[in-house]
Amino acid sequence: MPEPLLFEVSRPGRDGVTVPGCTVPETPIPAEWLRSSLDLPEVSEVDVVRHYVRLSHLNYSVDSGFYPLGSCTMKYNPKVNEAAARLTGFTDLHPLVDARDAQGALALMHGLQTMLAEIGGFAAVSLQPAAGAHGELTGILILRRRLADLGQAHRTRILVPDSAHGTNPASTAMAGFETVEIPSDARGNVDLARLKAALDERTAGLMLTNPNTLGLFEEHLEEVTSLVHEAGGLVYGDGANFNAILGVCRPGELGIDVMHFNLHKTFSTPHGGGGPGSGAVGVVKALAPYLPAPVVEHRPGGDPEYRWAVPAKTIGRVKSFHGNFGVLVRAYAYVRSLGADGLRAVAENAVLNANYLRARIRDAYPVPHGERTCMHEFVAQGRIDGAPDVRALDVAKRLIDKGFHPPTNYFPLIVPEALMIEPTETESRETLDRFADALLEIAREAVTDPALLHDAPHDAPVRRLDEVKAARELKVTA
Ligand SMILES: *Cc1c(COP(=O)(O)O)cnc(C)c1O
What we know:
This protein is of the alpha/beta class. 36% of the residues lie in helices and 11% in strands. It folds into 3 domains: 1-25 and 38-59, no CATH class; 79-337, 3-Layer(aba) Sandwich (Aspartate Aminotransferase, domain 2); 343-469, Alpha-Beta Complex (Aspartate Aminotransferase, domain 1), CATH 3.90.1150. The strands form 3 sheets. Strands 1-7-6-5-4-2-3 form a 7-stranded mixed sheet, sandwiched between helices. The protein has a 3-stranded antiparallel sheet with strand order 10-12-11, with helices on one face. A hairpin with a 7-residue loop joins strand 8 (295-298) and strand 9 (306-309). The chain is globular, with a radius of gyration of 25 Å. The structure holds pyridoxal-5'-phosphate (PLP).
């Protein structure tokens, strides 16, 4: 039964609040400013609580089940981070307060800048960008300013491999560059011959998602970055997939000049539905003067010890105030509670879990580049032998019947019928087995009873939608 609106269950005179008596002298409000009526639902407290709890149960979430949404890193977010982010010393702090009165918050931000620089192998970090894509734009603007300072403003092309995340070409275009796509080779790496052929005096740089959207680590990373540097370009690293290499290697040491971290993914903040996020950006020494202003500086013994500083050649501000501070607190708590060994274990387990799942399902679902060890995710195909009409979408919808959130579908675009699976490091072997068993069972159903897949989901509050109609005639109620 659809959940009624609170307005529909409203009864005149019923209420759920008791307004305390006035404790200050009453001041009359001029009549023209007074409302004659206020149309609010009149409901009891328990009606309101049950209404919202029932609605919340319609949502699938990381706290209710396995969520293998490739590229999104839907891992479990430790509750201790939430406790830290809700400390009133942080939440009551006004963003315009004098640095002297915000030393704790500044120390936390400085600590996070320092830890991220150490983890990524960078000289400096900005915490301002509000999302991964925003970090990309920030990084590309830094790259553009650097090239201009070097007298290289005629370099207007950025090379983007076809295995990059879709936000990469969008960011290069937003920053005013021409995007040139570089194909992948047969092993899923950047095609070196095509890269060499594309490099010339117009090349501003390369934007590399590594591990890429196929879940593969670039096997010629240092060669790729050297080629770009030799041609006079800079290398942007999309670090959203950093949970695969955390504590194992440092991009700043492998030729990446500037990279964003997705703090809400790798460093655990509940995300989805539009945020909040943080796309902190790390840069090598030559690019540090260009970081967005302000950054936090530490002068031991100074007054105040932590202060805002403006990098010498800053590209300016990219976000009001100081980034999404709550996400920064969670990231700080995450790094400090795991420590260096814990962070490395995150990457090792993320990679182990993905390879375990890949090995369990690859006989039933084709896995392009399945001969390679994957990193934190892999891309299978929703193509099943003996079931020619079954598509990735059918497999995904049938997974809902079996109690799982579907993997990412139809992305990356270079794999037809893509099912992009990222189990994350926080899942147990038992959960992975249940998910693999469900996928194997679906592959059998696809052959014996394909209608079961075509009509799925059967038990969800909303059944299969007409995708085209749903996009054109947006109607949120049944
Ligand atoms: C998620 C993701 C992004 C974009 O991050 P947002 O925070 O969603 O803007 C960029 N690149 C890759 C590889 C990603 O997985």
